[in-house]
Amino acid sequence: MSLQASAVLRASALLAMFAIVLASCSGATASTPRGNARDHTGLAAGHQSGVVYGIVPPQLPPAAQMPRIMRLVSQLAQGKPLIVHLYTDWSQYPSALPALDSEIASYVTRGFLVDLALRYVPPSGHDGDVAGFARYVSAMVAHFASQPSVAYLQVTNEANSPFNAAASDGAYDNAVGALVAGIEAGAAEKARTGSRVRLGFNWFSSLGAPADQRFFKSIGRLGGRLFASEVSWVGIDLYPGTYVPGSLPPPGSGHLAASAASDVSQAIGVLRSDLMPLAGLGSHVAIGVSEIGWATSPPERTFAEQAELVKAFMTGVCSVAVPDNVRFVQWYKLANTVLPTKSSPLSMGLASSAMVLYAGFAAYQAVIAHGCTLG
Predict the structure, then answer these.
(1) pLDDT digit string, tens, across residues 128-159
(2) Parallel, antiparallel or unpaired: strands 82-89 and 52-56
(3) Three-class secondary structure of residue 121 per DSSP
């Protein structure tokens, strides 16, 4: 999701529509093992170090909130590697760069890695300016070239989803062109500067099999072999039971976890086996779960259910981490940024907007402490 977008906004815009058009994703076929590969960025897909967990914190929070956020992120990590997933928009460049640099420094000095999404949100008059966005990506690669803790740059955000400009870049003109041009420009700047940042892009799962296939085919046609050689990873944004019906029983049924892990592993398998090959992206290209989450809205969608699904979703990721070369998984999100309302009741956070912890926080803390049981 974007810097500006909350899960509440996204829910009101998408939930009803997705409930109708996304049911086809529940029929996905799980992937089959393909053996170990080696990510061409140098990360071994044999997962000797396991999957790295991550979190989406509040973006550019007020200074008074930052110490509390840092404490919560540190509580989650408990000294283990952790990725902090941040977002920034092209339209905010370069005015937002000092604040972004300060925010990133706060995490990096505490030993966290950063996955920064470069959203294709155009400045006024530049919708469809693919060349302009490519120059922006190049400038950002150069800016962070000497900062190895900025480990991942995500070029565009959900370029396949046209439904909500506050959350998804597919709402803007020629988002696929911006994705391909951005990766190519970023790769050229990597070669020039010696940066080791891993360039990738993400995809919202799922708008249904035909739309998903069209998206990856269009990337393949536009990017070709050069583009495919420059992509280090592909991210999946996955919200079973919230934005994607999947096969989960209704909230409150007491049986959510039974199918949750399967929904997650199947979605990853479809990305690996059915979609990435359409863009020429082979098994050496890693997968990251860029966003995964489940919304609460008590009493119908309880905090206890969210905690249960934190564990189930992560079990699903870990079950395919080795065969599908999954490198990281990031929970959306640490804390709510606005209060739920009657018209928009869903909340994604593991804590309230006042930083009161829900049961899901402790569940995710335990997942991180235990790590993936790979198999």
Answers:
(1) 999 999 999 999 999 999 999 999 999 999 99
(2) parallel
(3) coil
Residue 192 pLDDT more than 90?
A: yes
| pLDDT, tens digit, 9 for 90 and up, residues 244-297 | 776 777 777 777 887 899 999 999 999 999 999 999 999 999 999 999 999 999
Per DSSP, what are the bridge partners of residue 20?
Answer: none
Q: Is 307 exposed, middle or buried (0-12, 13-18, 19+ CB in 10 A)?
A: buried
The secondary structure of residue 60, as a DSSP letter, is S
Long-range contacts of the stretch 315-319 (C-beta < 8 A, 24+): 315/261, 315/264, 316/260, 316/261, 316/262, 316/263, 316/264, 316/265, 316/268, 317/51, 317/264, 317/265, 317/268, 317/289, 317/292, 317/372, 318/51, 318/372, 318/373, 318/374, 318/375, 319/261, 319/265, 319/375
Q: What is the pLDDT of residue 337?
A: 87
- In single-letter form, the type of residue at position 217 comes to K
- Length of the chain equals 375
Residue 301 carries which side chain, given as an amino acid letter? R
Handedness of CA 306, 253, 204, 89 (dihedral sign): negative
| CATH, range 7-370 | 3.20.20.80
Report the run of H or E that residue 134 belongs to, with start and end: helix 130-143
pLDDT tens, position by position, 29-83? 333 333 333 333 333 333 345 899 999 999 999 999 999 999 999 999 999 999 9
The answer to whether the beta carbons of residues 28 and 352 sit under 8 Å apart is no
- What is d(CA 333, CA 43) in angstroms, rounded to the nearest whole number? 26
